[in-house]
Amino acid sequence: MTYVSGFESSVAVPPAEQFGAITRNVAHYFADAMTETVQGIQALMPQVFGSSAMTYAIHRQASFVGTANLTFGIGRAARVDLVSFAYKRLQDIKSQEKANVTPEVQASLGAVLFAFVEDDGPTPQLAPTYDQSLELQWLSGGMLLTVSFESSGDYNLLAIGSGGDVVFDHDVAFGDALSVTFVEEVTEFLDEMSKSVKNRPALWR
Amino acid sequence: MGYGGELADDQITLHRFNPKDPDHTAEPDDGSAPHLRQSAFLWSISDDGKHLETSIYQDSKLAKLGITRADTLDADHKDWDLASAKAAEVRALKRAHVPDQPNPLRVVEHEYPEGRVGAAKRDGAHAEVMYPKDAAGKKQWLALLAHTYTVDSLY
């Protein structure tokens, strides 16, 4: 089935006779995508997204933003879709055995995604590292936030500003909670980054 | 300058990457050119067993050898592209927030393989970025390194 995507860099306003078909396609898209998304997110962040109330909220949020994207197009993305994008990349990386994603790495990844992915924020982009672990990056406006995971579940958040300066460089031991102050610092950094979001990566779906 | 000698600060170094491999690059959400990431750098263990090393080429030497940047892409790297950084930029990388971690990266001469019959001309411009194998904070340094190399496209 070919779906109409509302997440491309530009979305032409369709002729009236096509609109009904597009709407149906979008409905199918969300029906299929949401099943996978919710299952994936629940697996990635079971402690947070396990409740039926939260699942319902995810569905509502994604449907609303998906509809908004058809109208406004550029760069819009719901939190759940951004997490889903990361989740699908994780599945690709695991299925191709490019990384040894230990339960500890997966738990830390889920915690980072839950803490920092927001509606219309920059896209969390996952890739394996040379030593078969994971690296998560957000990148826009000359700013970079990269999160490097160790197989133990320990991780590091390294942020580089648009001037090339290191903004923060923070190690986190597996299972440790992030301080409120640091969460705010990271969130402010990503909020600033999100102001320059215009496109999503080519693999974005 | 012989094997292992540091490259001059203003030497432009070139690194090969696959622009079609999503593991090699991250795409900025602002629509600008892709950025290299750690997976674009393939590391091998040095002859002395103490370092990781990754291949680069010295831009100025290519011209002296009578070849172009495109000649660094052999049949195994068809449709790949190049990113560049000056040696000084690699040496200037800092993790100021982490005590006792001075920049461990070296940018060194490494013509190779020396004297091999039929060796490609580009081997005369070969160099290495080296990293102590057991040093702390490896991934963060390599993330900084990847961010420093900017796409300098042949196309």
Question: How does the SSE layout of this entry go?
Answer:
The complex is a heterodimer of chains A (about 200) and B (about 160).
Chain A: H1 16-44, H2 46-49, H3 52-72, H4 79-95, H5 103-116, E1 125-128, E2 134-140, E3 143-149, E4 155-160, E5 166-172, H6 180-194
Antiparallel strand pairs in A: 1-2, 2-3, 3-4, 4-5
Helix pairs in contact in A: 1-3, 1-4
Chain B: E1 12-17, E2 25-26, E3 35-36, E4 44-45, E5 51-58, H1 59-64, E6 81-86, H2 87-91, E7 106-109, E8 126-132, H3 138-148, E9 150-151
Antiparallel strand pairs in B: 1-5, 1-6, 2-3, 4-5, 5-8, 6-9, 7-8
Structural class of chain B: alpha+beta
Distance between the termini of chain A: 14 Å
Summing up helix and strand content along with how strands pair, one would put the structural category of chain A as alpha+beta
Give the helix proportion of chain A (percent range): 40-55%
What is the overall pLDDT average of chain B?
A: 91
Uncertain regions spanning at least 5 consecutive residues of chain A: 1-31, 62-72
The pLDDT mean of chain A sits at 77
Q: Radius of gyration of chain B in whole Å, from Cα?
A: 15 Å
- How many domains of chain B? The number is 1
- Overall strand count of chain B: 9
Rough outline of chain A: globular
Strand order of the largest sheet of chain A: 1-2-3-4-5
- In which range does the helix fraction of chain B lie? 10-25%
The poorly predicted ranges of chain B are none
Q: What's the number of helices of chain B?
A: 3
Counting copies of identical and different chains, the oligomeric state is: heterodimer
Could you tell me the strand content of chain A as a percent range? 15-25%
Biggest pleated sheet of chain A: 5 strands, antiparallel
Please compute the radius of gyration of chain A using only Cα atoms: 17 Å
General shape of chain B: globular
Q: Biggest β-sheet of chain B, characterized?
A: 7 strands, antiparallel
